[in-house]
Amino acid sequence: MTAEILEALFFVLTSLMIAYLIRHYIFTITVLRGTRKNRTATFQQNAPHQPTVSILVPARNEEKVIERILQRMTELTYPKDKLQVIVVDDGSTDATPSIAQHYSNICKHIMVVHRKQDEGGKGKPAALNAGLKYANGEVILCFDADYYPQKDIVEKLAQEFADPKVGAVQGRVTVLNEPKNLVTRIVALERIGGYRVDQEARENLTLITQFGGTVGGFRRSLLEALGGWDESMLAEDTDLTFRVYLAGYKVRYVGDAESYEEAVDNWRAYWKQRYRWSRGHMECFFKYTKKVLTSKNLRLREKIDGFLLLNVYFMPILVLFSWIIGIPMFFLKSSQLFAILWTAVPISLYSFVGNFAPFFEVGVGVYLDGRKRAQWLIPLLIFTFLYNIPICTKAFIDVILSKISRKHKSHWEKTRHLGNGNRYIMN
Amino acid sequence: MGIILSYTLLSLPFVNNESSWTLPAFNFLFVSLTFPLNGALVKKVFLLITGDFVCLLWNYLISLLAHTFVYSFGDIFNTLYMIFTPLLNLFMIVSFWSVSLTVLARGRGKVGVGI
What we know:
Chain A is built from 16 helices and eight strands. Chain A is of the alpha/beta class and 427 residues long. In chain A, strands 3-2-1-4-7-6-8-5 form an eight-stranded mixed β-sheet, sandwiched between helices. In chain A, α3 (66-75) links the parallel β1 (53-59) and β2. In chain A, α3 runs parallel beside α4 (96-106) and α10 (267-294) packs across α16 (381-405). The model of chain A is unreliable at 35-43 (pLDDT under 50). Chain B is an all-alpha fold. Helices cover 77% and strands 0% of the residues of chain B. In chain B, α2 (19-34) runs antiparallel to α3 (41-73) and α3 (41-73) runs antiparallel to α4 (76-105). The termini of chain B are far apart. Residues 110-115 of chain B have low confidence and may be disordered. The chains are: A alpha/beta (427), B mainly alpha (115). Chain A binds chain B through residues 28-29, 32-33, 148-151, 174, 258, 260, 326-327, 330-331, 339-340, 342-343, 345-347, 349-350, 359-360, 363-364, 366-373, 375-379, 382, 425, and chain B through 21, 25, 29, 32-33, 36-37, 79, 82-83, 86-87, 89-91, 94-95, 97-99, 101-102, 104-106, 108-115.
């Protein structure tokens, strides 16, 4: 009897894993076939759509990286009379305010919003909301302080708002400090899989394209109607993604609107960042699963994709659970079906890394990017996945405990940026 | 076809239960995800056949190792073999596939990001 129950549970778990593998296999095949639909053709044939744009740059103690992005803000090719850059100094205690003020003094389109130390440090969503009050553009874009976008990125992102159904846009993130060490190289692989294949495929298949919190933005009227960023959420980007879709709008991915980021460069920072992502994502799961499944604004395929997207940070825990159940099954009497399903478990170990792109998705992404040697590191992705198991398990336990105790004690753990990406920028 | 038939016949002695799922999985993955990429078909077929041989050899060596351990230390190693073989096989598949991508990517220009 025990064996039958365990086997049934194992069957459910592996079915879910296989569903994810099929989903990502379809993503990969879609990108390989290049079935990108020419959605914006009707808009692109007309004059370029150049709405007024406000760029928000939240910054808390970012003295080592802030100058890089502010310099780039002065070099943007978007018409300056339609551009406003708002640096939100989120109660910094270092030189960030003075550096930002210097750029504000020499460039008319850059302004600084200073938040007092007792106001600041409450997380990125709070800083963005503070900046939003001063924004006057029709489109609101956001860039993290450690980012370094293309000069013409605003044109590429703003153009998409010509389509009235588009509520938000997302550009591509690429790792700036990739050569630094093994951690940055692996994060770069995750990013490639996540953006070059995953986001691209979701865009092509008109599924739930995810707003990633930076290198993207919103139609201002929609953002205000939605009440801005939810300051209680750790994954404010996923939260807004689902609010946009539930409101009947789309998020559009623009793969050629690219920006470099300074990736975490040690496992401790990786833990903190991924813990925040996984806990925030799990909170979104509890908040949106029912709404997504019952929404009248979403098609069936979007509901399925949305459900799988909301579940994704539970997968490392479920894979761990399937190992815990599966190994005793070898000592109990188990069926032939179990032996077949067991082979799905190790495949899953290579399939839920970082942004939860399987190894084949990462590999194809790396190839399509024209990389020649980065593929060698793909076998090592298994260690990233194993590292994600305790991260997601702790996040899950904390979410459950906060639900039971009814105390929402999410603390925004900021990623420290050391400016080690500066050396990779060629002037 | 002759080459594929020959290598299939030659490799039959090495096929066991484990390789009976590993081989189709590797071939499916390789054909569906690697063949659409740029590169000469001959190169891809060569890589596929090489991968199949490596796959069979890998399985054969692991099974020999398992037999040795079972013979020397007891039946528990048979269970461990069953538990971990899929993982070891997948490690081989991922590694070989990654190397194949590197081979195919050679000679192509870097796309990268323009800043």
